[in-house]
Design goal:
Layout: H1 16-52, E1 59-62, E2 67-73, E3 78-84, E4 87-92, E5 96-101
Length: 110
Amino acid sequence: MLITPAYAQSAGAMGPGFLIQILPFVAIFAIMYFLIIRPQRQRMKQHQEMVANLRRGDTIVTTGGLIGKVAKVVDDSELQVELSEGIKVRVVRSMIQEVRSKSEPAKDNS
């Protein structure tokens, strides 16, 4: 005969061999989650908290490398930043990379 019959695999395709084959994929996903995804989420949450807590007088650094002082909080998405005396620009909050020094909270003279 020129054609040999093809034999079917065993009926138990979901046996222990399947679990051993899928285990490395599960392990790789777990390692990627704890080394990449989870720390990135924590950094993103810290950045969002930092940007939400910006107020007038804070010294900031933008992602473009400009250092300035927050002159005015325009709205939830923009700030007015004073780069030097008399030079003010509007900056999108998400473009703030770092807060160098926080301003003192306003004192209550009651």
